[in-house]
Amino acid sequence: MSTQQDQIKRIGVLTSGGDAPGMNAAIRAVVRSCVYYGIEPFGIYRGYEGLIENDVEQMNAGSVKHIIHQGGTILKSARSPQFKTKEGMAQAWENIQEHELDALVVIGGDGTFKGAMEFGNKYDFPIVGIPGTIDNDIYGTDFAIGFDTALNTVVEAVDKIRDTATSHNRLFFIEVMGRDAGFIAMYSGIGGGAEEVLIPEKDRGIEQLFESLERTSKRNKSSRLVIVAEGDKNGSVYDLEEQVKEQFGDRYETKVTILGHVQRGGRPSCGDRVLASRLGVLSVEALRDGKRDIMVGIRNRKVEYTELDHATKRNPKMDKELVRVADIISI
Amino acid sequence: MSTQQDQIKRIGVLTSGGDAPGMNAAIRAVVRSCVYYGIEPFGIYRGYEGLIENDVEQMNAGSVKHIIHQGGTILKSARSPQFKTKEGMAQAWENIQEHELDALVVIGGDGTFKGAMEFGNKYDFPIVGIPGTIDNDIYGTDFAIGFDTALNTVVEAVDKIRDTATSHNRLFFIEVMGRDAGFIAMYSGIGGGAEEVLIPEKDRGIEQLFESLERTSKRNKSSRLVIVAEGDKNGSVYDLEEQVKEQFGDRYETKVTILGHVQRGGRPSCGDRVLASRLGVLSVEALRDGKRDIMVGIRNRKVEYTELDHATKRNPKMDKELVRVADIISI
Amino acid sequence: MSTQQDQIKRIGVLTSGGDAPGMNAAIRAVVRSCVYYGIEPFGIYRGYEGLIENDVEQMNAGSVKHIIHQGGTILKSARSPQFKTKEGMAQAWENIQEHELDALVVIGGDGTFKGAMEFGNKYDFPIVGIPGTIDNDIYGTDFAIGFDTALNTVVEAVDKIRDTATSHNRLFFIEVMGRDAGFIAMYSGIGGGAEEVLIPEKDRGIEQLFESLERTSKRNKSSRLVIVAEGDKNGSVYDLEEQVKEQFGDRYETKVTILGHVQRGGRPSCGDRVLASRLGVLSVEALRDGKRDIMVGIRNRKVEYTELDHATKRNPKMDKELVRVADIISI
Amino acid sequence: MSTQQDQIKRIGVLTSGGDAPGMNAAIRAVVRSCVYYGIEPFGIYRGYEGLIENDVEQMNAGSVKHIIHQGGTILKSARSPQFKTKEGMAQAWENIQEHELDALVVIGGDGTFKGAMEFGNKYDFPIVGIPGTIDNDIYGTDFAIGFDTALNTVVEAVDKIRDTATSHNRLFFIEVMGRDAGFIAMYSGIGGGAEEVLIPEKDRGIEQLFESLERTSKRNKSSRLVIVAEGDKNGSVYDLEEQVKEQFGDRYETKVTILGHVQRGGRPSCGDRVLASRLGVLSVEALRDGKRDIMVGIRNRKVEYTELDHATKRNPKMDKELVRVADIISI
Q: Which has the closest alpha carbon to D312: D298, D300, D294, D299?
């Protein structure tokens, strides 16, 4: 094993795809683990785009000073259509050789891992992925970096909206992020004390919402919050508002809020910082141990390695018990 | 004067119009000042609506326990078209007589004060107003209750958006509240470090924005935030985005965020709590001193009484020096 | 099973011991689950103290409206020496019979569960415990309610202290809560980017701290944060400061901060709200299913029942991997 | 005037004394104003210490990118005993000449301004001061940079402590900063809804506290918060606790929290950012206009210039009306 471990002398690290709070904590852990193990760390800017454009810089413990609490990513991020081309990949490979990198740690989501897999296979190059996305839609880890912070950001916003909703007896539709997944909506719906949560994984149709609103309009409940996942099948929050207006007239005064990109930023939560620190250390150790083409994750509080192929092809399941809990306590 | 002071034995307090953080601190101060001066305080729910529907409750020091830090208003708020009718006013007057109220403290904005003025004149009834609106568009006070909290909410959101904007080199249009006034936009634009602030009071046309974007697209500045007041004359943030896309194509990757109702809620800032506490005390003391048809405000750190007539007819001016400061530091 | 389920018609709920953010979310979930299952919920104030003094109130869905986001506990908490006496217990039992309660849900930590166990055994009465303590020192659940929020509170404070530490090149000793356990210190140490973490579970003696400070005083590192668990074996933070001053003289400018009771309060994090909501539902369902003398917990994302006897006698272990991660990234 | 304005070609900026949130926003505004007016800005690290050690660096608009929201000061701060010596001053003067600086902007408090005054007089060198201290104890400005943020930090902590105080019916003594001034205590006492505020400017003796506690112990008020300024004349919070214990025995369960250095850090509030931005611009313009030996401040929303001599010799007065308001609403 020691022979393998000596083979990794230089590691490049990049963040790619949508940014997520805690990515900086992960970068910091990767860089410091490298220093700890006598490996030279290199920062690659703007994801695969920077790899192609040779936007690469040697890093050291000082490069990652005072970033653990900062949102965003100091390495910046980008989506790189070029990296899907033969020429783009070839150029990236040239730059990797120029810097004599022995391995890559890539931090991001599905798209990031797909690119890593293709590139790693093509050039027989060791790559380890770290799951970072507020959407939490990555198979192979209980939570992705950024999810916990996004949840806190959302419930904080929901708390604020509840203040004004309650003061005016209003019905709010609040759209949250999550792409095709309803994780942000489901967790923040429970945590925010929402009366309804609409997610793509559990489409019950608009009728169920109508029924529920029918019941409460009779009970004269003071205000109502409906959390809607952006991937929900019943149309946009504006469509929903329109349909509710048609159905209920002025029995409900409705408002719409799309939380938008505030969900991507902000100081990472302690949970995300700890998760990112662990995964950063584990990614470097995995490379030293000869692992490649895998994603490091934490499941049931233990490290888990998932082949990138699986991580990208499978989807994590919505926890049915959470749906049940949401139904029971939103009565 | 002591005769006057003895005439006020029961005071009703209500919040009306859009809610604002700090209204609870004002209610608390009104109620506690009443208790301090041996006056019986009555809470009127849902503004003038509750006055008409006799939704009135006697209060005491205990009724306002642990509310100073809560957003929204425990008395709830509403807009009341009924109060503009003769019948509505008559019903309100009946209820006031039933509860033997000697005066009202009304917390809100322009609309609230207009209603107060008409009603006070019609029935020769003493009313004192307290300015509470995040829009800060009230003449006669440096700041209205809620403005400072809204600013902090907005810059916190802007800080988060900057995290992701910087990570991706994006141009964000962020719409903030303020109705016809640009105060939230101007202050949060400076405080948020925005590159551009678009406000109705200083319409320079879309060309100026284009020029500025032209300059920076050459300097390759990493990200740009444009704060847009909802009352801005150049159209919605979506219109702006569209125009910028047409003009600049893919030289800018644009995004839009409408902050919406989160700006109305949240724990009030210390500044708003202190302001609300002062104005609450001053409103009760003004009534005891025989004042009526006035709004209490703080100007230059001193109490100021403004006739409701003036408060509603005049508009506060945008501070030119702020505009100048914004121009200088956004280079 | 249905017979069992019908036997539980009235459930009392109380919070006891040190309060923790999220307890309100748990109370809310217990009460709403009761309503959902047709059980009458009763709130018992001030823990066992209120049970003895018959400070008991029937609750309904409305009693727990708008509390999910509030710190503290609306049922209040207390430590009850009386409940350890025969007379105290007898009085409590009398009150339980008076209200015809069929079971209790007790929310708290070790002391709470010990009391529950004795009482439950003595009177053959069904009790289910929910783990709520910021210290996280409860066996049988991955996390106790309040821990996640406390971590976020601590890292937020640490972030602030880092601002001033960095500006002045200072060495800070920051004492955090946790009683005999170092969980808050270890997690917040990693999350806060502390250079050193001193916990009771891993006592390395003051010499190791000296060595580390020796190294960095040579490297001229700009500032240093040392997180100290209150249960640490090397004395109080003031003792530590004293010893470092003696050893290093003016090579370090030292400061001490004891975070104190701010760690117990505050709006619960989304994670704590979701955890509390799940455990609240599960506790009521456990009672309906005839379970008793157990604590409901979540381990590896699944419900787990632990006998109260075990929960109080065993201690959760400090995760060794976390200690390792902390060592690697604090270089 | 244009001749004068052309004389200032290079300006040095430094932060000195205790750091305060918003100092970075002030540095940013100074640097950007310089760029705007064609002046070259130089950053001096660690206050006068760095001036003596020639720790000076040319800055540009990019040097102050993304710092407006950061606590602390990127230029760092220090207290410099050396600067009080003839040799220290001479060395500083030499470095100023080496960098061909034409003027200084110094950001800090009393001590900072005294040093500036002596140095400016001795070498006939133009210096302008910007008031930055959370203690707000500077004459010549309504508010100093950092005060507003510290207030929000304190009330947020007080809100958290109230959660746990209320849950346990406890009496808390909370010590806040402010040196000899009670501004933080008075404002945060009102904003935090404290039952008592003890400040050096209004020493009523321990007896008054006893009387008040006597009254409320009879009324059985659920919890009590006493905010104590660090400069209060009745001894430390620990002394106070001791005296209350002696007087009241177990009628009150007491706790002590010293908020400490968290008050110095954190993201600046919007108010502090706007204030700092204005003062930064004004300081550079004052120098261009030939002003020297003055501090720029904002009074009654307008710029005000105060001779450094006055700023250091006089003390701002505690607003009597605030004391009155605190008394009325804490009944």
A: D294
In a domain, C118, yes or no: yes
**What distance in Å separates residue D162's CA from the closest CA in chain C?**
8
Active site (annotated) includes residue C135: yes
Residue B4: pLDDT band (50, 70, 90) is: low
Q: C227 and C181 share a domain?
A: yes
Series of mean pLDDT values for 10-residue runs along chain A (331 residues): 74 96 98 98 97 98 95 94 96 98 97 97 98 97 98 98 92 96 98 96 89 80 89 93 93 94 96 98 98 97 96 93 94 78
B contacts of D151 (beta carbons < 8 Å): 269-271
| CA-based torsion, D73, D78, D82, D84: positive or negative | positive
Q: Which residues contact B122 (CB under 8 A, 6 or more apart)?
A: B89
CATH number of the structural domain spanning residue A227? 3.40.50.460
Residue A98 is encoded by which pair of tokens? 């120029």
What CA–CA distance (Å, rounded) separates D17 from B213?
40
- Which residue out of D6, D102, D135, D250 is catalytically annotated? D135
* Domain annotation covers residue B185: yes
**Confidence at residue A220, expressed as pLDDT on a 0 to 100 scale:** 65
Instruction: Kindly provide the residue ranges of all beta strands, DSSP E only, lying in chain D, ordered along the sequence.
Output: 10-15, 40-44, 56-58, 103-108, 127-131, 170-176, 196-198, 224-229, 253-258, 294-299, 302-307
The annotation places the binding site of A for Mg(2+) at 110
CA gap B17, D121 in Å, rounded: 57
Interface test with A, best of C263, C320, C329 (most A CBs within 10 A): C329
Residues C234 and C181 in one domain: yes
Q: Which residue of B has its CA nearest to D221?
A: B62
- Among B154, B188, B277, the residue with its CB nearest the CB of D190 is B277
Both D112 and D216 in a single domain?
A: no
Query: ipTM surpassing 0.85, yes or no?
Result: yes
Q: How would residue D1 be classed by pLDDT, with cut points 50, 70 and 90?
A: very low
Whether the CB-CB separation of A28 and A311 falls below 8 Å is answered with no
CATH code, A297: 3.40.50.450
Inside any domain, residue A330: no
Q: Does C261 touch chain D (CB under 8 A)?
A: yes
Same structural domain, C40 and C125: yes
CA dihedral D272, D274, D277, D279 (to 10 degrees): -70
Q: How far is CA B230 from the centre of its chain?
A: 14
Q: Do A180 and A211 fall within a single domain?
A: yes
Measured between CA atoms, how close is A201 to chain C, in angstroms? Answer: 19
How many Cβ atoms are within 10 Å of D264's Cβ, its own excluded?
Answer: 26
- Asked if residue B257 and residue B165 are part of one domain, the reply reads yes
Which of the listed residues B201, B227, B261 is the one where a domain comes to its end? B261
* Cβ within 8 Å, pair D167-C73: yes
Q: State the total domains in chain C.
A: 2
**A125: domain range?**
2-146+268-313
Kindly state whether residue D254 falls inside one of the protein's structural domains: yes
Same domain (yes/no): A85, A186: no
Q: What strand order describes the sheet that includes C253-258?
A: C196-198, C224-229, C170-176, C253-258
- How distant is the Cα of D297 from the closest Cα of chain B, in angstroms? 14
Q: What's A162's DSSP letter?
A: H
CA–CA separation, A109 vs A77, rounded Å?
12
* Continuous H helices in chain B: 2-7, 23-36, 47-52, 86-98, 110-123, 147-168, 183-191, 205-219, 237-248, 270-288, 308-313, 320-329
Of the residues B261, B284, B305, which one is the last residue of a structural domain? B261
Q: Does A69 touch chain C if contact means CB atoms closer than 8 Å?
A: yes
Confirm or reject contact between C172 and chain D (CB < 8 A): yes
Q: Which of A135, A148, A272, A293 is catalytic?
A: A135
D136: Cβ–Cβ under 8 A, 6 or more apart, which residues?
D143, D144, D147, D178, D181, D183, D184, D316
Both B155 and B49 in a single domain?
no
